[in-house]
Amino acid sequence: MTAVVLSPDDVAAALRPGMTIGIGGWGSRRKPMALVRAIARAGLTGLTIVSFGGPDVGLLIAAGCVRQVVCGFVSLDTIPLEPHFRQARQQGTIELTELDEGMMHWGLLAAAQRLPFLPIRAGLGSDVLRVNPSLRTVRSPYPDGEELVAVPALTLDAALVHMNRADAGGNGQYLGPDPYFDDLFCLAADRAYLSCERIVPTAALLQGGPAQSLLINRAMVHGVAETPNGAHFTSCPPDYARDEEFQKQYAAAANDPAAWLSFSERFLQVADELGYQQAVREFTASQGAGAP
Amino acid sequence: MSEEPTLAEVCIVACAEAWRGDGAILASPMGLIPALGARLARLTFEPDLLVTDGEALLMAPDGQTTEGWLPYRDVLRLVATGRRHMMMGAAQLDRYGNQNISCIGPWDRPRAQLLGVRGAPGNTVNHPVSYWIPRHSPRVLTERVDMVCGVGYDRAARLTGRSAGFHELRVVVTSKAVLDFATPDHRMRLRSVHPGHRVEAIAELTGFELTVPADVPPTRPPTAHELELIRERLDPRGLRDRELG
């Protein structure tokens, strides 16, 4: 298929409560935050989120969208622990499927290749098998007879990823140093939605980076949204670094219910992504002026 | 270098020693002192080690030149090949080297949620792993860990096939001592004591019964050349003391 151009709110409207949604990026790096914010505004509930987790997971938990998280970690990188995830775990308000990072990779690969599982060594001997009683091991059918963990396919209803550039048809390009697992998330999903810093004419893609930076092709994507600064406050090199000041504000607010209420009013209960970006500009300007 | 080495500098050299003999594999240090240790090892006795910039690039020994590309997907592939020796942290570590970075308390509803298992289960059954404990205390070096992320020797002994052979916990470097697993059943053993610390005090600060040989040597002090590299080249801003508790 060839993708259609959508707004972040259109993407959220295409999703349904209870879906399993995979989110690209890693930690607090190149997360499709504009799409995440649209889901939070839309108030989708009961979601299962599969992620190399960062503020995407935290924000959706805070907005009451999440029933279950499938991950190996949730971190803001420069702030090691994600406060919303932490609280939700400690208060028992979300379910967790805790997997090793390699198992996450293998589960997405299995889903992308329409395999029921893939064998991996990771997990053997660890409590990952204890806390996931449905996980099974398999024995090699060859003479070695080795026992391995059978990582089940992490099949997704939808995937959300953020690229530096894309064309209107859904060809996506990353220009930073790491593709993370974004192509796999798209391939593991029934429907994939790509946000990007800028939609450019197809012919302009190779002016920005080499052919191998074209990580996503239009057979993998159903919708494209142009969301400048759309990974904010996570990093999106070379377009921008992580907004550490804003992330600090986010984490501080997340640790205090009253502060979170005002953070949420200011940044999340806005009309749309443009409203968020306007609120961020005002925040940044106030920081620059030395205001509180 | 006339000044005596600091504790941080002793720890950096002890971390560097963990990678001795490893050759051309990826050294993955978690934390500043292990990172300085890996870079020190490469500048001195282990020049073939591969080290990243903390992101997706492999950096040549000059610290400036990019020599390769290693995004997360390729780190995970490298893990499975065994060509890596990682030095991880631990919120809890028991006598067999079972490590926890996931959560404290019952997993169903933890008292404290930490990072999550990350790659620790896969790392420990695929390639050598060491640990860096910046605060040697019975809370960290404890009788039982709440969630086994990194696999210890007692559990590795029950692995079958090749997995058992891939498991190796090399050393545990703490703020007071170097520990290893060179005992008949791989219980943790006191290998050396950092200058200024006593064997008895270290045993008391360890939450399980530590195997203490009759003769415990002092941890090797940095050479003059190593001190110069640490102070003038690797950490001229002196950030290394901040990691010790």
Describe the structure.
The complex is a heterodimer of chains A (292) and B (245). Chain A is of the alpha/beta class and 292 residues long. Chain A has helices at 8-14, 33-42, 55-62, 83-91, 101-112, 128-131, 182-187, 205-208, 244-254, 257-267, 273-288; strands at 4-5, 20-23, 47-51, 66-71, 95-98, 117-120, 136-139, 147-152, 156-166, 172-173, 189-199, 223-226. In chain A, the strands form 2 sheets. In chain A, strands 1, 2, 3, 4, 5, 9, 10, 11 and 12 form a 9-stranded mixed beta sheet that branches. Chain A has a 3-stranded antiparallel beta sheet with strand order 6-8-7. In chain A, strand 4 (66-71), helix 4 and strand 5 (95-98) form a beta-alpha-beta unit. In chain A, helix 3 crosses helix 4. The longest helix of chain A has 16 residues, at 273-288. The model of chain A has no long low-confidence stretch (mean pLDDT 97). With 245 residues, chain B is α/β, with parallel strands linked by helices. In chain B, 26% of the residues lie in helices and 19% in strands. Chain B is built from 8 helices and 13 strands. In chain B, the strands form 4 sheets. A 6-stranded mixed beta sheet of chain B has the order 1-5-10-11-12-13, sandwiched between helices. In chain B, strands 2-3-4 form a 3-stranded antiparallel beta sheet, with no helix packed on it. In chain B, a hairpin with a 4-residue loop joins strand 2 (51-52) and strand 3. In chain B, helix 1 packs across helix 2 (32-43). The longest helix of chain B has 12 residues, at 7-18. Chain B is globular and about 45 Å long. The two termini of chain B are 26 Å apart. The chains are: A alpha/beta (292), B alpha/beta (245). Chains A and B meet through helix 4, helix 5 and helix 6 of A and helix 3, strand 9 and helix 4 of B.
